[in-house]
Write a structure and sequence with these properties.
The complex is a heterodimer of chains A (472) and B (200). Chain A has 472 residues and is an alpha/beta fold. Chain A is built from eleven helices and 19 strands. In chain B, 18% of the residues lie in helices and 46% in strands. In chain B, α1 crosses α2. Classes of the chains: A alpha/beta (472), B alpha/beta (200).
Chain lengths: 472, 200
Amino acid sequence: MPNSPQSKPTTFSPSAGYAAGFAMPERAHAKSPKGLTREVIESLSAYKQEPAWMLTARLNAFEIFKQKPLPAWGGDLSKIDFNDLYYYVRPDERVQQNWDDVPADIKETFDRLGVPEAEKQFLSGSGAQYDSEAVYHNIQKHLTDKGIIFLDTDSALKKYPELFKEYFVTVVPPADNKFSALNSAVWSGGSFLYIPKGVRVDLPLQAYFRINTERMGQFERTLIIADEGSYAHYTEGCTAPAYTTNSLHSAVVEIVVRRGARVRYTTIQNWSKNVYNLVTKRAHVYADGLMEWVDGNLGSALTMKYPSAVLLESGARGTVLSLAMAGDGQHQDSGGKIIHVAPHTSSMIISKSISYGGGRASYRGLVKVTPKAEHARCFVSCDALILDTASRADTYPTMDIRARDCDISHEASVSKIGEEQLFYLQSRGLDEANARSLIVNGFLEPIVKELPMEYAVELNRLIQLEMQGAVG
Amino acid sequence: MKQIIWHNEIPQRTLEVARGETLNMWLLCTTALRAEPLEIILHEQAELSLTGLVVIGKEDHAESLITITHRGKSSLSRVVVKAVLFDSANLKFEPRAWIVKGARGASTNITIRTLLVGKGARDTSIPSMEIDEQEVSARHAATIGRVGDEELFYLQTRGIDRENGEHLMISGFINDFIHHAPEALQSALHSLLPSYEFTK
């Protein structure tokens, strides 16, 4: 909603623990200060009217965040100034971006991708919330008839407190890393999805279908619980660039895949190039369950994201399909992690990356087989394409194997587009740009074919655009 | 062509292979070894062939970090390391290939094959690559596993019991190293396998 001096100020109940630490407004509103303090967390929790246990959990996570160091590996995090960020902006004080201020290259990409007008406004933060209300309500009825719970995380905490509390921070605890601690302290928004036993959701569930929530939030917390024998496919993100002035995006996704259940989680992120995208995604997989991560990283200045699966019981499976494109000024540090805890578990990680225009794409992965995980099987393949002399590709795979009866294999390659392939296509009448984009599309095809149709079509168009920029 | 043979030691921290030179390295590890990191720098048109074999048992721990830095154009590295881990032996091997900007035409190929024989055997393999040049060929591969039950069953159906079958498979696994290794390592290699317990 647009911020205007005539809007009613938000008030806080003293009994909810709001500390009088906010600056007095020059206008009618109180504005959240920059920086992360105990007072900011207390006021965030009070505004959301959360139960006391959640405020305690947030404050404990804040203490952990202050103590944990930044990782000494991965991308360059030295420029993040934690004191120079807004950690919570209330919806009623959220200032809409002026369309005129949206960078020209973002607008041009919208035009060339044919992004509809309403979506342009939404993705650039310069318009009213994307209004899919009628569609949303129809979808909701279809889901609730099956007993499925699908709403934003804030509402789920209020409406299903016992279910929420049973699973919250069980898969990614605050102490896991500095950024999971940060998210646990200031999380806001995200999706909560519960699928009852035996229920299959054939329609891919998208974050779009949550209205009146803080979409594109900095610190989303998503929790998905698939009960025994259930199936759901959750998708988020967009191939079109998403512009935001928030320079730190640090989400956490926790997924529980119960016996015989299957969850596919598809992400295509294309954050604008001012964003640090530092995300922790993990699934716990039980007997005969299957977790499938499909992870596309196109945008951001730096992404550090390693979707992972912990295979806890016999027959559990996990797969990660990771796609990364790193252009000028970008570093995609991504991959996947699989931890085999139980016997007779299997996994696969397939990673494809492209570096161009001076970008850097790094694969970072872990396959861990614990001593009791006999008969574990895992296959990892990571391939990188470097399109020009200014770009760079790295692979950092780790295999930590502590059970004898296992079958683990890993292969990786880094190469450029073959001259012979280019010549062949050019001799058939394609110009260089089209030939390159055809070859790149073919390189990515094993992953792109797993995306929902609309993502795949848009991704192909985006690649074509980028290849045209990469030539000459 | 130069040749380096190291048995249960990695006594240097740095090696340089000069322009146009070829270096053949043979590494054999049959005991606990915590080696200091080694960097091998390859200049223009230098070639490195590194062949390694690790056969350890009991609770021996062997650890090595080897960085191969391609500084020169058209430099080439081929690394093949095989490991057989008995009892509760533990191996941590980190081969790193770095191709720096300007090393056009460089080529690197690293292969690690580990056989886990002992019930308590553990392996950590971390092959990594940092490639800062476009016109290169860079590959690596790693496999970790045990002697397959199907292969053992095949041998049993031919009258070879499990213990001897496993011995045969392990011998075959390390045979190409034994076959090509220099004379200085042969006496150590010949007495290698019979000293270990095989799984029943």
